Structures are given as C-alpha cells and as structure tokens.
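Please fill in the sequence for the structure shown.

STRUCTURE ENCODING:
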C-alpha cells in the first residue's frame, strides 16, 4: 500500500494504534476509516493520538481473510457526483465491501484483497489489503465498508 500517500492524506489527524503483537498502525478517515501498518523503518509519524488497538481491530489486522475478493464494480452514489466520488465494490461469495475512490488509490498493483467479517450478526465486513511474500501473506491495511461508515458507528475504532 502507498503509506506515504496515506500519511499525506491524513495530515497529522490520524491515530496510532498499538496492536497486541507490538506492531503500530496508523488509522484515520480517508473516504472511510482506513488503517495501514506503519513500516518498521518509518519513524517520526505525527498523529493526533496514540492508543491500544481494541479487540475487533486487533483481530482484523492479524486474521486470514474469510475469502479473497476482487474488484467487481464501480458506481456513483448520485448521478451528479464527480469522478472522485466513485465507489469501488470488492466482492466474494461471503459479501462485499464498497470503498471510496481515494482509498482505492492507496492499493498497489501487487496487493491482493480479502474480506474479513468483524460482526456476522450485523454484517460488518472490512476490506483487508494483503501483501504476499512467497507462500506467506500479511495484512498491510484495512478499509471499512462505505455503507457501514454512513451509519457513523465509530465504536469499532474508538
């Protein structure tokens, strides 16, 4: 993922989350709530806050995706929206996640994507951005579904 671009988009308004395994993640609103793993060589990140990661987020950044997904469609929410407002839909048999065009620009060509369900009862899915190295893959970033974000439930990342 394009970490430098993400930092520029947040402009110091993000939060650094400390995962139970010691990894640090930068999170904030870029289209919808987005988190990226801070590369180990990257120091001096400016953030509004530093806090421990809650359980749901900690699970989402270490878990294998429930299914791998691909970009299935793109749409405008309103007919008079501009190109920057395009919603990109990633889908698999388990469900779908829509993200804003700004977030889509953070995904590298070599990244793969997966969907992870945080809450099956409420149908809360997130898009996991995965980086493969050989047989292994690790979560490099997560993006919340735009539809879920419109409900303005910040409890998952507060």
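FILLED IN BY: designer on duty
SEQUENCE:
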């Amino acid at each position: 993922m394009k970490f430098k671009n993400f930092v520029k988009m947040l402009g110091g308004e993000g939060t650094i989350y400390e995962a139970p395994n010691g990894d640090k993640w930068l999170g904030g609103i870029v289209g919808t709530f987005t988190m990226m793993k801070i590369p180990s060589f990257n120091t001096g990140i400016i953030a509004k806050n530093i806090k421990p990661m809650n359980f749901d987020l900690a699970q989402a950044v270490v878990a294998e995706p429930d299914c791998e997904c691909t970009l299935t469609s793109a749409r405008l929410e309103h007919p008079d929206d501009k190109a920057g407002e395009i919603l990109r839909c990633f889908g698999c048999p388990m469900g779908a996640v829509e993200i804003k065009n700004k977030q889509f620009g953070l995904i590298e060509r070599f990244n793969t994507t997966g969907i992870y369900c945080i809450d099956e009862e409420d149908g809360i899915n997130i898009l996991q951005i995965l980086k493969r190295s050989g047989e292994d893959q690790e979560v490099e970033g997560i993006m919340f579904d735009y539809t879920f974000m419109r409900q303005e439930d910040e409890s998952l990342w507060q």
